[in-house]
Design a protein that fits this description.
heterodimer, A: mainly alpha, 2 domains, globular, B: alpha/beta, 11 helices
């Protein structure tokens, strides 16, 4: 069933050095990587991003096939973005023209550029969830957000909500799968028919799913209360997060990488005095 | 209608670290009109096996064929092919079937299956009423009630009626008594026995309650780690393979188990008895002899 093929946000069990990194470091490094993708302005520098990503993928020992499966659900979005960029870029040499629609050299360049950027964005962010257990991820997030609790941000509650949401994704997927099968056995058809028929066919799936979700939520709330859960204040952890040497190295690598990306953006400024002067004047 | 399971293998998540072989080269035949019980531990592949028979999963290898009474064969499922035809002939009641209820009224929910079969409205209602009567729910009293207002046991019976209303030739029940109290448990099993007698259906019951299986089933199929371990009458399976069953952590039904303990303490009884009545007779006989 299609619901089982979703890899976005899924954890891939492993023991690699990437898996063992402190979740806080992984979150920050991923953020920096994602920001760097928006700083990049040329294909040459994307080469650097790809190399960086490739190194992490190899170190994490996750089969490439598994990571690329995460692209499938977003493929439509990527293709759509590329087409929009292709058709609505009007600058540059015109390569083909049909009525008001022009395909320009710039358009092709931008379409490829955006497409690559999206693919790298998805790879980068799925690597974080693939190598970090959901619990570690939310713990890390809670720790990172903790300073903001002073200005009233409910860091613990946010993290707990995320933990619960992540924890129940597979449960609800299983539940969906089960109800789907049960209704299919009663002759329901989820795949064929017009959009209206398909939407109507979802009722026998959604009603039981909602009933289940509320039941599960109620049970969980009861179980948490029975174990005296009363929010984040004064809670201690079984696994304390500790930074290790590997974390320092990872941090150093990502900083150097980011510096390189920023520098490369302004590379022309460094080697071409005239461009540098123009840049300074433009400020 | 006969069902032939031929060399059935199912692998989940092939090529991933959590690849699991749920069913491993299973071959057997379900005879027309029989009561077959499938037993085994949690995770032994029982549910996966019956979902294949219902045509809901695609096998990784092997195939399942239904043989009509006149000998014509139809493929239920094999690799790369899923059949919807068979779903009408094989009804499956899932674990906790009450979680599939969704309609506003009991009658409407039971009509869902017949409606998908393309029957006329009168026929749907007629089928639904008939099915509700089979599960001991009065359609005139409970028909217009919301299924969510019923008790747990009633909900389950309505859900079973939802499958019966499609008039399947084979009825698969996946742990139909899970989570019920002893009375609800007995009610459901008695109901299954009655349905079988009245409508002459083939029944496949997935269970891990050994006493139920000994009491009701014509044949027992024991699954262990995805493989078929034993298949035979309850007597054959329980009496000849007692030690193996204990080794894989399955219980022996209480009757032979009790007789066996008596035998160990020196009472000369035959421990090949499965039903309570014959067990009592056997103990009386042995005591008189002494």
């Amino acid at each position: 069933m299609a619901v089982r093929d979703i890899t976005l946000g899924q954890y891939y069990p492993g023991e690699s050095c990437i898996h063992r990194l402190d979740p806080r470091v992984k979150i920050i490094c991923t953020l920096i990587y994602l920001i760097s993708l928006f700083v990049v302005q040329s294909f040459t520098v994307f080469g650097l991003c790809i190399v960086m990503l490739a190194i992490v993928i190899i170190l994490s020992r996750i089969p490439f096939r598994f990571i690329s499966k995460g692209l499938k659900p977003i493929m439509l979005l990527i293709v759509f973005t590329m087409i929009i960029n292709l058709l609505f870029t009007t600058t540059g040499d015109i390569l083909a023209q049909l009525g008001p629609v022009k395909i320009t050299r710039d358009g092709i360049y931008r379409a490829c550029f955006m497409g690559l950027r999206l693919v790298l964005l998805i790879f980068g962010s799925s690597l974080l969830t693939l190598t970090t257990k959901p619990i570690e991820l939310t713990d890390g997030l809670e720790k990172l957000l903790a300073p903001l609790a002073k200005i009233g941000l409910p860091a613990h509650e946010l993290a707990m909500m995320m933990t619960i949401a992540l924890r129940f994704i597979p449960t609800l997927l299983d539940e969906t799968d089960k109800i789907m099968k049960a209704q299919t056995a009663r002759g329901a058809d989820f795949e064929n028919g017009s959009i209206k028929e398909k939407a109507k066919a979802l009722v026998p799936l959604l009603v039981p799913l909602f009933v289940s979700a509320f039941r599960i939520a109620g049970d969980l709330a009861m179980a948490m209360e029975a174990r005296c859960y009363h929010g984040g204040a004064g809670r201690t952890r079984m696994h304390q997060m500790k930074m290790a040497k590997g974390d320092a190295i990872a941090f150093a690598v990502i900083i150097v990488y980011f510096a390189l990306v920023i520098l490369s953006r302004n590379l022309s400024l460094l080697i071409d005095p005239q461009a540098a002067r123009a840049f300074l004047l433009s400020l | 209608m006969q069902i032939k399971v031929e060399n059935l293998t199912k692998v989940f998540n092939p090529g991933l670290p959590y690849e699991t072989k749920a069913v491993d080269k299973v071959t057997f035949t379900v005879e027309s009109g029989e009561f077959l019980a499938i037993i085994g531990h949690t995770g032994s592949g029982k549910t996966t096996l019956v979902q294949h028979i219902a045509g809901l999963l695609e096998p990784s290898e092997g195939r399942i064929v239904s043989v009509a009474d006149d000998g014509t064969e139809t493929v239920i499922s094999q690799k790369g092919k899923e059949s919807t035809l068979v779903r009408r002939k094989v009804g499956i009641v899932f674990q906790y079937p009450e979680y599939q209820l969704f309609e506003e009224t009991v009658i409407k929910d039971v009509c869902f299956g017949p409606k998908n079969q393309g029957l006329s409205e009168e026929e749907q209602i007629e089928r639904a009423k008939e099915a509700l009567k089979l599960v001991n729910i009065d359609p005139d009293v409970k028909g217009e009630v919301s299924p969510f207002e019923l008790s747990g046991g009633q909900k389950r019976r309505v859900a079973i009626a939802g499958v019966l209303a499609m008039r399947p030739e084979i009825l698969i029940l996946d742990e139909p008594t899970a989570g019920l109290d002893p009375k609800g448990h007995d009610d459901i099993l008695e109901m299954i026995r009655r349905i079988r007698r009245e409508v002459n259906m083939t029944i496949i019951l997935v269970s891990h309650n050994m006493d139920d299986v000994a009491e009701y089933a014509d044949r027992v199929l024991v699954m262990n780690r995805g493989a078929l371990m034993f298949l035979g009458t309850p007597k054959e399976v329980y009496c000849e393979h007692e030690t193996e069953l204990r080794e894989i952590g399955l219980d022996i039904p209480s009757c032979p188990s009790f007789l066996w303990m008596l035998k160990e303490r020196g009472l000369n009884v035959d421990d090949n008895k499965l039903h309570f009545e014959e067990t009592a007779q056997e103990i009386i006989r042995a005591l008189k002899e002494r």
